[in-house]
Amino acid sequence: MKIMTENKVIVLTGPAGAGKTSIASYLKDRWQVPQVITHTTRAKRIGEVDGVDYYFESASSFLLNDYLESVHYSQADYGSSMEGLQKGWEQSSLACIVLDTKGAETYLKRLGSQAWVWYVTIGDVAKLEKRLVDRGDDQAAVHVRLTAPEFKRDLQLPEELEGHATVLKNDDWQETCQEVDRLIQSYRAL
Ligand SMILES: Nc1nc2c(ncn2[C@@H]2O[C@H](COP(=O)(O)OP(=O)(O)O)[C@@H](O)[C@H]2O)c(=O)[nH]1
Ligand SMILES: Nc1ncnc2c1ncn2[C@@H]1O[C@H](COP(=O)(O)OP(=O)(O)O)[C@@H](O)[C@H]1O
């Protein structure tokens, strides 16, 4: 499939609770940046909508899609398709996607400078648990997530992304929004 060189995708990555999904929503609401919807076999959380937050799949339906990359993360499968990315780019030359750090590495390898990686983090990682609880995740799900090796891995910016990622420390939401505004404005001014 042809990749238009003027298109770009913001790859939001980082540990659970850091604020990737919140930033994706802000990008959509404030800057009309469409989010590429990915596929997952994990159970739907309260309030999540199929086709909006994810394409929720069974173990067998997950296998029917053609993925640009897919990962196993904390007891579930996740995958993103080239079709999804193209759909995003049909709406806007700047799209965004939420991926784990393995997926972000793959996007960087496959898309080069068309992948703009934003590593979302937090000053005090101990606060991540409270964010997940406040989000409404049940206690068992929070425990599974916080003890997953993938979660622990994503607490650090991987070596492969060093020098290729914009680091966003999402401690204060208003400051994060201002930083996102600055990044998008400087991109648009290019
Ligand atoms: N590589 C990859 N990661 C994905 C994809 N979709 C979601 N993720 C990542 O999977 C991880 C788990 O996502 P989720 O279950 O929504 O939990 P959350 O991180 O607690 O919001 C997160 O790091 C997401 O960024 C995908 O298609 N590919
Ligand atoms: N700067 C912040 N301060 C406090 N809470 C935040 C901040 N950013 C996001 N949150 C909240 O933390 C929870 C996890 O954020 P979310 O965007 O779902 O993270 P992720 O997608 O990285 O797992 C949500 O309830 C969200 O509203």
UniProtKB/TrEMBL annotation:
The keyword Chaperone does not apply. InterPro entries: GK/Ca_channel_bsu, Guanylate_kin-like_dom, P-loop_NTPase. One of its GO terms (molecular function) is GMP kinase activity. Keywords: Kinase, Transferase. It comes from the Bacteria. It catalyses: GMP + ATP = GDP + ADP. One of its GO terms (cellular component) is cytosol. It holds the Pfam family Guanylate_kin. The keyword Kinase applies. PROSITE patterns: GUANYLATE_KINASE_2. Residues 7-185 form the Guanylate kinase-like domain. PANTHER family: GUANYLATE KINASE (PTHR23117:SF13), GUANYLATE KINASE-RELATED (PTHR23117). Essential for recycling GMP and indirectly, cGMP. Belongs to the guanylate kinase family. This is Guanylate kinase. The lineage of its organism: Bacteria, Bacillati, Bacillota, Bacilli, Lactobacillales. The gene is gmk3.
